[in-house]
Specification:
65% helix; mainly alpha; 68 residues; single chain; 2 helices; two-stranded antiparallel ribbon; Transmembrane protein; 12% strand
Length: 68
């Protein structure tokens, strides 16, 4: 009984770790290459186009935390 339960927990940990790894790679590859510079008072601010990087990266962190 205990061996069967530890196998399920181990499988769950492996799946979440793999999911976290894949989502981190997708987030890294989907980030925009550059932004549009906007002049401010003494500073330059870059406006980036909207992209799913933050969402995918956050899902990666959540999967990693659930794995622990």
């Amino acid at each position: 009984m205990a061996l069967e339960q530890s196998g399920k927990i181990g499988s769950f940990v492996i799946i979440l770790g793999f999911l976290s790894f894949i989502l981190a790679i997708v987030a890294e590859n989907k980030k925009p290459p550059f932004g549009t510079p906007i002049q401010g008072k003494g500073v330059v601010i870059c406006k980036f186009p909207s992209d799913p990087t933050v969402l995918v990266g956050s899902l990666s962190v959540v999967a990693l935390v659930l794995r622990s």
